[in-house]
């Protein structure tokens, strides 16, 4: 029989487990609220999984991190959706938004300083989307992103507004970041066709929070990530008898060495223990309506949104603290609702062209892309180049964007320029503000 862990190990977790709010309040004054136990759970994870609502609020009051994942890869919010208590989910969504803003503001001075250190430039990225699914491959778009940088300002022009596996929205969009503006005015998106603009939300309204809670409670819990546990880069070779390393001139000007990327996996996991069979049928109908231009929101006869109610709590498991903490890592007894779980993974064999001739460094590119990360495909590119790449700059990359879709990105033009007009970073006077134009931003 295993010996019990030291009694003072993970005291916050134990106080939550035993629903000892008085002890928890006292311990929070001197213990690390971000600490994970042997299973990767924070005290907030346990509070959510066990339905300790008062402990949840106490931990959030002390700024417990919401985005952090446990050893099984699930966030606090995912576990809260599984448990199904609506007020708890709402509190976590609010805190998550607040913490995200605060983290961005902490990084902001360094980001602005990094942008100011880079000479002003113009750059073009060509995106070609591909799929191994024949019908999907016919409808996939291509796009050329044009990026202008002047001082601490960035402008990205694109024709690709949003996308999912089967649905692509085209347009004429400009994303503008003004590094020296106030945080709530620094990010603006222009729709150059309808002549409207939207400031990227700095704070969400109560209705927006509750809309998000409804969506979380009525749809699958999803977790998708690019796994790089076994990623490796091998020089691509050509020739049958006399093998030689492959090289390529990218965009007609950058001598590059080609690498094959091995071990790149797109892992997708889905949970739906919080959904009833009726939910699943409704979701299917709503999704079909949405893909045809409908709205996924339900409304009552008076036009008010129909809000999801809290689920009945899952049956109490009667798991003791000793049983939990002495179980094998990540193999502890289930604390909340029994899992209804499905996972899939797909391996990708990609190529990457690295050049020592490109004028920008990878670190500089990461800083630039952080500014425009609200766009999904840009965010995926930034995520990929933070991996430890071979020497040089990735002038051409293939990366998975969705389970069925990969993107080939080519850096086809780059020029340092001193003639970029500051007017490019100002919203035109004839544009009208529309705070709902881009609902995902």
Automatic annotation (TrEMBL):
Its main location: endoplasmic reticulum. It is found in: Endoplasmic reticulum membrane. Coiled coil: none annotated. Keywords: ANK repeat, Chaperone, Endoplasmic reticulum, Membrane, Repeat. InterPro entries: ANKRD13, ANKRD13_C, Ankyrin_rpt, Ankyrin_rpt-contain_sf. ANK repeats lie at residues 39-71. One of its GO terms (cellular component) is endoplasmic reticulum membrane. GO terms for biological process: protein retention in ER lumen. Residues 155-425 form the Ankyrin repeat domain. The keyword Flavoprotein does not apply. One of its GO terms (molecular function) is signaling receptor binding. Acts as a molecular chaperone for G protein-coupled receptors, regulating their biogenesis and exit from the ER. PANTHER family: ANKYRIN REPEAT DOMAIN-CONTAINING PROTEIN 13, ANKYRIN REPEAT DOMAIN-CONTAINING PROTEIN 13C. This is Ankyrin repeat domain-containing protein. It comes from Brassicogethes aeneus.
């Amino acid at each position: 029989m295993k010996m019990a862990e030291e009694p003072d190990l993970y005291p916050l977790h134990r106080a939550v487990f035993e629903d000892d709010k008085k002890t928890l309040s006292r311990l929070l004054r001197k213990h690390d609220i971000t600490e994970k136990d042997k299973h990767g759970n924070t005290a907030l994870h346990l509070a959510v999984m066990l339905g300790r609502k008062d402990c949840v609020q106490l931990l959030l009051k002390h700024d417990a991190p919401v985005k952090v994942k446990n050893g099984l890869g699930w966030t606090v919010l995912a576990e809260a959706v599984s448990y199904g208590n609506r007020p708890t989910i709402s509190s976590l969504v609010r805190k998550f938004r607040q913490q995200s803003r605060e983290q961005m503001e902490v990084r902001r001075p360094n980001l602005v300083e990094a942008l100011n250190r880079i000479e002003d430039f113009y750059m073009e990225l060509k995106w070609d989307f591909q799929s191994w699914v024949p019908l999907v491959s016919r409808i996939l778009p291509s796009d050329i992103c044009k990026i202008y940088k002047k001082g601490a300002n960035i402008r990205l022009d694109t024709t690709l507004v949003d996308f999912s596996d089967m649905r692509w929205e085209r347009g004429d969009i400009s994303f503008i970041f003004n590094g020296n503006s106030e945080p709530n005015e620094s990010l603006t998106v222009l729709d150059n066709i309808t002549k409207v603009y939207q400031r990227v939300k700095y704070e969400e309204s109560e209705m927006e929070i509750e809309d998000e809670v409804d969506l979380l409670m009525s749809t699958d819990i999803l977790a998708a990530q690019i796994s790089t546990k076994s990623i490796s880069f091998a020089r691509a070779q050509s020739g049958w008898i006399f093998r030689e390393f492959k090289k390529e001139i990218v965009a007609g000007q950058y001598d590059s060495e080609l690498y094959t990327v091995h071990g790149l996996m797109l892992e997708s996991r889905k949970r739906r223990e919080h959904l009833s069979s009726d939910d699943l049928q409704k979701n299917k109908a709503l999704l079909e309506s949405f893909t045809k231009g409908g709205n996924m929101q339900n409304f009552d006869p008076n036009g008010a949104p129909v809000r999801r109610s809290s689920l009945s709590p899952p049956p109490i498991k009667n798991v003791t603290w000793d049983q939990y903490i002495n179980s094998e890592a990540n193999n502890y007894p289930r604390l909340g609702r029994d899992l209804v779980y499905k996972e899939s993974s797909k391996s990708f064999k990609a190529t990457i062209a690295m050049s020592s001739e490109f004028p920008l460094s990878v670190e500089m590119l990461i800083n630039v892309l952080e500014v425009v990360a609200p766009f999904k495909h840009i965010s995926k590119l930034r995520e990929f180049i933070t991996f430890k790449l071979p020497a040089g700059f990735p002038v051409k990359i293939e990366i998975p964007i969705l389970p069925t879709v990969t993107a080939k990105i080519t850096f086809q033009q780059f020029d340092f320029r001193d003639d970029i007009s500051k007017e490019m970073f100002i919203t035109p006077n004839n544009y009208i503000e529309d705070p709902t134009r881009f609902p995902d931003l």
